[in-house]
Design goal:
- The protein has helices at residues 9-12, 31-41, 60-63, 90-101, 109-136, 147-166, 179-192, 209-217, 220-225, and strands at residues 21-25, 45-49, 73-76, 85-88.
- It has two domains: 9-103, 3-Layer(aba) Sandwich (Glutaredoxin); 109-222, Glutathione S-transferase Yfyf (Class Pi), Chain A, domain 2 (Up-down Bundle).
- Strands 2-1-3-4 form a four-stranded mixed sheet, with helices on one face.
- 47% of the residues lie in helices and 8% in strands.
- By secondary structure, the chain is α+β, with helices and mostly antiparallel strands.
- The protein is built from nine helices and four strands, in the order αβαβαββαααααα.
- InterPro entries: Glutathione-S-Trfase_C-like, Glutathione-S-Trfase_C_sf, Glutathione_S-Trfase, Glutathione_S-Trfase_N, Thioredoxin-like_sf.
Length: 232
């Protein structure tokens, strides 16, 4: 049996099966990247709920695995060289799991093109969609100055147009379903669903993104991953 006691996070969130991958997360748009990827690959894993609403990601135990205090994070008992390995940042986790399983990340030049789209999601889609959510649905909606909301809405529209153009004549961001799609699905779903911003960003006017989102959400592994880990 693998010993994971060197990872302080396991003291607060005890591990039941230390021989399988450990996921520390919540089913947010960033968190579900890891859970969807794990469901798609079929890797056995044990999920641990990190309640960010209770600031659990800022506890010393969680910070020992991700000093940036953000979910998701993982511990792989069978990491590089067969040693336990901890990793944070959703994009890095996607690439790591793709490399570990040989799934959902093509080789050659297509590998770097796929990673390009993952980086695009992390650097643009996530931050801007998240700000739309803040200013449209959460505390920012009370701000009298609506210029910040307009800025983030306008940029989100532009980003959706970029994705829409990319999907012209394609079912997926790359030739086949990949980590590029996984990185994006939760964020686009949240924008039009949980954030209730579909009308704001003219989502219905897009030609390709709505059908792509529907295809992605119809995947059984995506449906499962979107609920893991959930507060219920």
């Amino acid at each position: 049996m693998t010993d994971l006691s060197a990872f302080p996070i396991t003291r607060r969130w005890p591990v039941q099966n230390p021989d399988i991958l450990q996921l520390f997360s919540l089913n947010t748009p960033n968190g579900v990247k890891a859970s969807i990827m794990l469901e798609e690959t079929g890797l056995p894993y044990e999920p641990h709920l990190i309640d960010i609403g209770k600031n659990e990601s800022w506890t010393s135990e969680f910070l020992s695995l991700n000093p940036n205090g953000k979910i998701p994070a993982i511990i792989d008992p069978d990491g590089p060289d067969g040693k336990p390995f901890g990793l944070a940042e959703s994009g890095a986790i996607l690439i790591y799991l793709a490399d570990k399983t040989g799934m959902l990340l093509p080789g050659g030049a297509k590998r770097y093109e796929t990673i390009q789209w993952v980086m695009w999601q992390m650097g643009h889609i996530g931050p801007f969609f998240g700000q739309v959510g803040f200013f449209h649905k959460f505390a920012g909606r009370e701000w009298e100055d609506k210029r910040p909301l307009k800025r983030f809405v306008d940029e989100s529209k532009r980003l959706l147009a970029v994705l829409d153009d990319r999907l012209e004549g394609r079912e997926w961001v790359m030739d086949d379903y990949s980590i590029a799609d996984i990185s994006l699905l939760g964020w686009v779903r949240n924008l039009v669903g949980f954030y209730e911003a579909g009308e704001l960003v003219d989502f219905a006017s897009l030609k390709n993104v709505p059908a792509w989102l529907e295809r992605g959400l119809a995947r059984p592994a995506v449906q499962r991953g979107l609920q893991i880990p959930s507060k219920g």
